[in-house]
Amino acid sequence: MQPSGHMDSFSRDNLPPPDSWPDLLLDGFDYPDRLNIGVELTDSMVEKGFGDYTALIGNGRRRTYKELTDWTNKLARAMVENLGVKPGNRVLIRSANNPAMVACWLAATKAGAVVVNTMPMLRAKELSAIVDKAQISHAICDTRLMDEMTACAKSSQYLKSVVGFDGTSNHDAELDRLALEKPVQFQSVDTAIDDVALLGFTSGTTGSPKATMHFHRDLLIIADGYAREVLQVTPEDVFVGSPPLAFTFGLGGLAIFPLRYGAAATLLENASPPNMIEIIEKYKATVCFTAPTAYRAMLSAMDQGADLSSLRAAVSAGETLPAPVYQDWQEKTGKPMLDGIGATEMLHIFISNRFDDHRAACTGKPVRGYQAKVIGQDGAELPRGEVGRLAVRGPTGCRYLADDRQGVYVKDGWNITGDSFSMDPDGYLHFAARNDDMIISAGYNIAGPEVEAALLSHSFVVECAVVAKPDEQRGSIVQAHVVLTADAPKDISTIKLLQDHVKSEIAPFKYPRDIRFIDALPKTATGKIQRFALREET
Predict the structure, then answer these.
(1) What percentage of the chain's residues is helix, strand, coil (to nearest 5)?
(2) Tell me, what's the pLDDT at 205?
(3) What is the rounded CA–CA span in Å between residue 223 and residue 246?
(4) Signed CA dihedral, 478, 483, 487, 492: sign only
(5) I want to staple 2 with a disulfide (CB 3.0 to 4.6 A). Which of 192, 242, 349, 522 is the partner?
(6) Between 325 and 112, where is the model more confident?
(7) Among 12-16, 263-267, 287-291, where is mean pLDDT lowest?
(8) Could you give the C-alpha distances from 250 to 38, 85, 129, 267, 344, in angstroms and in order?
């Protein structure tokens, strides 16, 4: 490893032992030994001639790369000179998606901090678990979200400083006022390429939090891999999407990818489908990141006259892309929907379809730099066509902060993602289920997403989720939780209709023996269906 630019060595001291890391395939990703991702996405872009290009859109205004550079330099000076942030300190940012959050993340990174982005909906108890795990000393919080942060700080042995920033366009909060007086020049910290820049906490639903550790180089790799090869980003692109910047999927898709290539990012605090549609129409957005549910809403909006013709790339991730949604999008727009799979541990998408190589019910092939295989319980590679565990390796990989679970995720140099896949004879990967979403019923393996896709192809079904329901005779049966259209009757005849429909679409033994009608599916902030909540109801 390179000599660290951090004074506070906590992150490097708590990396997993080197022999427990995955194999890192770094060929083709060549960067200088000293690198600061905050500088690369701002000052360096101005030097490359993008100073007058729009970088961020949000809160009713546009900010150029030059404005973003000046803003982040002022904020970084305030963090160092007034808040006492030292290189290597962990800095928590609490905010919804807005330009100020991006500016604070870039500024803290320039100051050499290890940033922990968090979601607005977290409560004091959840924030405390993150603060304790990462021994966070500084928190920067949107003033509208201060209550839970203050409550967390009162009982924290690590948190020394909580300072508010204004997430609106008024710049009327303590951090903003401190930054106002600062010069626009800042000497960013000379961080190493393999200094930790970001801690990404996984969105797991149970157990103690896991923090994934990402280097400065990793944040460039995802842009120079997926964003360049698959999305083919240009300075003319305008990005929009729903995933929170607090998750690596959102930070990549709505900040790193556009800023790396001189494109613009639109940021919405409430990225509901109607709001995203409005932004796409207003700013002629070209690249969209969201979940299949939102794309279904967009398809309906197009039927009502919404103009989404500016979109050239619709990226679906975070939840299984049902074949009907993929097909309807293709029919309506003439453009493919890009399915992809990523993981917080791997930082971003590592398997994806391509614009010129895509098909329904297929996740695609590994992104440049990555390799994938399907393995059995014994770790041996399975024959083509068989469903097994997905193993991946590439230029990024899992490094948990001080966590024994490193040995569960990484085996023999490969990242074991927790997904079940099959690989066809041509090397294309097909998603079966999350390993814990596989339903075993009377000896049959049934992939929940396959049943969901069959249900969604019926006109009565708006959304659905399938889980295993314990059953004395069969071990488990398939239980479906279904949101119906307004005009569909919620009665036994509809249950029978949907069961028969599934039997006609896929192997009859896979049909849902138990169907429940519900008004809405429980979801995380990123749009993932919380199947554990549905299991608890069974």
Answers:
(1) 35, 25, 40
(2) 39
(3) 17
(4) positive
(5) 192
(6) 112
(7) 287-291
(8) 17, 25, 22, 11, 11
Predicted confidence (pLDDT) at residue 247 exceeds the cutoff of 60: yes
What's the whole-number mean pLDDT along residues 441-465?
A: 88
The answer to whether the CB of 165 falls within 8 A of the CB of 94 is no
Q: With H, G, I as helix, E, B as strand and everything else as coil, classify residue 319.
A: coil
pLDDT at residue 535 in the model: 85
Kind of pairing between the strands at 90-94 and 138-142:
parallel
CA distance linking residue 162 with residue 399, whole number of Å: 28
Tell me the per-residue pLDDT of 344-374, one tens digit each, with 9 for 90 and over: 999 999 999 999 999 988 999 999 999 999 9
pLDDT the model gives residue 472: 80
Q: Report DSSP letters for 8-65, one per residue.
A: S-HHHHTSPPGGGSPPB--TT----SB--HHHHTTHHHIIIIITTSEEEEETTEEEEH
Residue 264 CA to chain centroid, in angstroms? 19
Read off the DSSP letter of residue 386: -
- What is the structure's pLDDT at 538? 62
Domains and CATH numbers, the chain: 10-221 (3.40.50.12780), 442-537 (3.30.300.30)
Map tokens 């030097």 to a residue. Answer: 47
Query: pTM for this structure?
Result: 0.86
Whether the Cβ atoms of residue 337 and residue 330 lie closer than 8 Å to each other: yes
pLDDT at 206 over 50: no
What confidence tens digit (pLDDT) does each residue in 486-528 have?
Answer: 999 999 999 999 999 999 988 788 999 999 999 999 988 767 7
Q: How many CA atoms lie within 13 A of 187 on its CB side?
A: 2
Residue whose tokens read 């080197």: 18
Query: Is the per-residue pLDDT at 1 higher than 80?
Result: yes
Please report, in angstroms and rounded to a whole number, the separation of the first and last CA atoms in the chain.
Answer: 50
Element (H, E) at 388: strand 388-393
Six-digit token string for 108: 């803290």
In Å, how far are 74, 116, 119, 374 from 248, measured between CA atoms? 25, 10, 12, 25
> What is the DSSP code (8-state) at residue 86?
-
Residue holding tokens 């993008």? 50
Burial 109-142 (b: 16+ CB within 10 A, else e): bbbbbbbbbbbbebebebbbebbbbbbbbbbbbb
Eight-class DSSP state of 423: E
Which tokens is 205 given? 């639903």
Query: Which amino acid belongs to residue 380?
Result: A
Tokens 């201060």 belong to residue: 146
Asked if residues 26 and 368 have their Cβ atoms less than 8 Å apart, the reply is: no
Above 90 in pLDDT, residue 444? no
pLDDT at 433: 75
